[in-house]
C-alpha cells in the first residue's frame, strides 16, 4: 500500500513536533505544508517523518523533525528577515525558513549537497534561497549581516567570526558542546560586544568541519 504522505506529515506535526513544545502556529503550518518527503533520498522516503536523524552522506544527517521545529520556533523569523544557514544538508530547513523569512543564504562545503538542494528547492517553487558552496568555519565569508544565523552541524565552541555576521538584535542558533550531550543555544546580539545566551535543549549532531573538540593531550 502506498504511503499517504499528507497524512504522515500531519501526524508528524501533531504527534511529534507539537508535543515537544513547538506551539508557534506559523512554524507548525510550514512543517505541515513543506513536503519533507521531497527533501530526502528516494530510499528514505518511507522514513521521512520518523523521529530520527536520516543519513545524507559525507557523515552528515538530516535533523529530527522535532529538532527542526524547535529551531524554527526559537529563531522567531519575521517576513522581512535575512537568514544565514551554515550547513545546507538536504535543503529542507532552508525551505522552511524561506517560507517564514524574507530571504535565506545557505552554505555547505559539499558541492553535491548544494546541487541537490537547489534542485529540490526549485521543484518546490521556492525562489528566495541563495545557495553557496564553501567551508564556513575558517574560510567562506558571506556578504553583509543577517537577522538570524542557524548552524545545522555541531561545534565544540562557536567560532568568533560567526558573531560578526549578526545584525544588532540578530539571533544565532547553534548546537555546541561534546557528543553525545550537546546543547542547542540561542545567542542574541544586544549591542556592540554584548550578547545574551539561552540554552534551549539537548541533542547530538555530527560536527562541522574544523569544529570538533580538540583531542586531549596524552603523555
Automatic annotation (TrEMBL):
One GO term (biological process): methylation
A cellular-component GO term for this protein: cytoplasm
Pfam families hit by this protein: PCMT
Alphabetical UniProt keywords: Methyltransferase, Transferase
This protein's record includes keyword Methyltransferase: yes
InterPro entries per UniProt: PCMT, SAM-dependent_MTases_sf
UniProt GO MF annotations: protein-L-isoaspartate (D-aspartate) O-methyltransferase activity
Family classification: Belongs to the methyltransferase superfamily. L-isoaspartyl/D-aspartyl protein methyltransferase family.
PANTHER family given in the database record: PROTEIN-L-ISOASPARTATE O-METHYLTRANSFERASE
Name of the protein this chain belongs to: Protein-L-isoaspartate O-methyltransferase
Species: Rhodanobacter glycinis
